[in-house]
């Protein structure tokens, strides 16, 4: 069993959302066995910025479902979308 890198776009609830605090909450919400490889802020439109989160997780059945569910439950998150997935 290998590992998978996934890039996930996390949209905040609004332009007033503190992205640094959101990043901390996302890191704390990660399921066991998943680790963050990096964060990047991506401008979207009208002052809204998305957090692009790269995570490393085991290559198991269900893929990124657990991470998406965990991120969706975090305070300040509007939506979660997997952008890219690849084997390491």
Automatic annotation (TrEMBL):
The lineage of its organism: Archaea, Methanobacteriati, Methanobacteriota, Stenosarchaea group, Methanomicrobia. InterPro entries: eEF-1beta-like_sf, EF1B_bsu/dsu_GNE, Transl_elong_EF1B/ribsomal_bS6, Transl_elong_EF1B_B_arc. SUPFAM superfamilies: eEF-1beta-like. Pfam families: EF1_GNE. Keywords: Elongation factor, Protein biosynthesis. This is Elongation factor 1-beta. One of its GO terms (molecular function) is translation elongation factor activity. It comes from the Archaea. Belongs to the EF-1-beta/EF-1-delta family. Residues 3-88 form the Translation elongation factor EF1B beta/delta subunit guanine nucleotide exchange domain. Promotes the exchange of GDP for GTP in EF-1-alpha/GDP, thus allowing the regeneration of EF-1-alpha/GTP that could then be used to form the ternary complex EF-1-alpha/GTP/AAtRNA.
């Amino acid at each position: 069993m290998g590992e998978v890198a996934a890039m996930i776009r996390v949209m905040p609830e609004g332009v007033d959302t503190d992205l640094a605090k959101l990043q901390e909450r996302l890191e704390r919400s990660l399921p066991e066995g998943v680790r963050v490889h990096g964060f990047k802020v991506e401008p979207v439109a009208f002052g809204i910025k998305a957090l692009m989160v790269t995570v490393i997780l085991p290559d198991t059945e269900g893929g990124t479902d657990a991470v998406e569910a965990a991120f969706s439950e975090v305070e300040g998150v509007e939506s979660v979308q997997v952008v890219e997935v690849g084997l390491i």
